[in-house]
Amino acid sequence: MQVDFDSIQPETFEHFKGGEGSVTTQAYVDGNNRIMKATVHPHSSIGWHQHSGNSEIVYVLSGVGKVVVEGGEEPLVPGMCHYCAEGQFHSVVNPNEEDLVVFAVVPQHGSL
Amino acid sequence: MQVDFDSIQPETFEHFKGGEGSVTTQAYVDGNNRIMKATVHPHSSIGWHQHSGNSEIVYVLSGVGKVVVEGGEEPLVPGMCHYCAEGQFHSVVNPNEEDLVVFAVVPQHGSL
Q1: What interface predicted TM-score (ipTM) does this complex get?
Q2: In chain A, where does DSSP find H-type helix?
Q3: How many CA atoms lie within 13 A of A8 on its CB side?
Q4: pLDDT tens digits, residue range A20-78?
Q5: What is the dihedral of CA B101, B29, B70, B94, to 10 degrees?
Q6: Rounded distance, CA B108 to CA B33, Å?
Q7: Cβ contacts (< 8 Å) between B3 and chain A: which residues?
Q8: CA-CA distances (angstroms) from residue A80 to A55, B11, B24, B26?
Q9: Which of A58, A89, A92, B59 is in the most buried spot, having the most CB atoms within 10 Å?
Q10: What's the gap in Å between the CA of B3 and the closest CA on chain A?
Q11: What pTM was computed for the model?
Q12: Which of B83, B108, B110 sits opposite A1 (nearest CB)?
């Protein structure tokens, strides 16, 4: 099936998972996957959270930011891919003046 | 963790899953996910196959092609997302003169 983000209603969340500012998502969800385009707005973040029973794969479409992981940080620039494996924690941060736009998948694995 | 496709050795497959021509992939794989960049070369295809116990999410980075699904076809153009849910079949076709490059995730769900 086609996931057409242009036809999915955007939802904007303030302090998403305890982060700063606001995040807008367009998501297709079934029992196995959350498939989404997410925009972390300027000076905003997705707060520190754990992926239990699922994981997250993030591919940067536009903008520049960083991911905070256990033990460090990873840069996010267009074309870069971040993987939060099952059981791990992360936070996505946009400290800049432009939107950080990512394509992301959260698959359910159910093995935790 | 960062999945840096620039540091992942490309592998080229002829007649990938029974398709035409050749496909080049760069993949990071663990027990839960296959995370990859795949290039379907001109006049090439990934053959018709089923996703059993896993699914596949495809995001088009560049090039133009199509996905054959049960009951029809879906266009693939940059920014478009195709979802092959668990249990479904599909084939990815590039009938054109330019590479079709996609970011794709194959998560294991294990519920079949």
Answers
A1: 0.95
A2: none
A3: 20
A4: 999 999 999 999 999 999 999 999 999 999 999 999 999 999 999 999 999 999 999 99
A5: 20
A6: 6
A7: 57, 81-83
A8: 17, 20, 19, 13
A9: A92
A10: 5
A11: 0.96
A12: B83
